[in-house]
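Troubleshooting entry. The earlier prediction with biotin gave an output that would not parse, so I re-checked the input for stray whitespace and re-submitted. Clean input:
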Amino acid sequence: MKPNTLLDLLSDHRVHSGESLAKQLGVSRTAVWKQIRKAAAEGIEIKTIRGQGYQLVTALDLLDREKIVEKLAKVSQDNVDVTVLKEVDSTNAEVARRLLAAAPGMPVVLADSQTEGRGRRGRNWSSPKGQNLYMSMGLTLRGGFEGLSGLSLVLGVAVVRALSALGVQGAGLKWPNDLYAGGKKFGGILVEIQGELQEGQVQVIAGLGINVHMTEAVAVDQPWTSLAKHWPDHEWVRNDVAATVINAVRVAMEQFEIAGFSGFREEWQGHDIFLDKPLAARDGTLSGTGAGVDDGGNYQLETDTGLVSVMAGDISLRVSV
Ligand code: BTN
């Protein structure tokens, strides 16, 4: 993303005179004033101190490609092509376009906001500007379509690992694709298959939406939380979350290609929010107790007649009351 230089200069929260801002930006003082008004219109509060200058009030957490790349492990730096956009229809759609263009490196696209953010089952993914992480990665995996079984669960494990590396514990996974904390959703994963290349290589797009700073949500129809709401003592920086997740996904993909989902099963189950809960599936026609996942990543219910696996299709599991 092209850095918003006025905000970069103000991001130290000190008072800056109009003159010095104008000088550093190479524009007139009127142009600085216009930029200040534009930022204010976008909800960024900047105090005008008479005779002194301007001071940023709102806490800013700007996405910055350089800062993300700097924090990537060396091996990720060499293999990943990170792009940060101010706005896009959907980062998944943007990665799809980049995969078609066959640019070198694993494409990773982040955007500050999405105009058509998409969730699972054709739902919309609320994507307010500047608050959360909207990130998609183009992954190429060997082993054909069968090899993809459990991939989205593995991505969930990668996010939990990343959060743990950032110093917070207790994130939960709700089968198949939701990230939970304290009984509320803070993120979701959308895996879309792009196509098969030669020799059983499959291209998939892994989209991750993680609520980072969000404190209000419009049109979200389920209990939700954010990293900052659930872990308020941690200082959340979107660039750090992004880089840590990219590193974790890269490591997880290597492990997944060698061991498949079975190599993650136990770890996934350690975060299963359905475990031992009374559940209903298949429109309420099947009920039982949550019993974790099988080696293919399908969810299992302990029923009166034994273990029944619920396929990783679009069957939703509900905690029955
Ligand atoms: C879900 O329904 O829980 C999955 C939500 C996935 C949202 C992310 S945000 C980044 C990427 N781009 C999209 O349009 N969707 C995914």
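This one parsed fine. The chain has three domains: 5-56, 65-269, 278-319.
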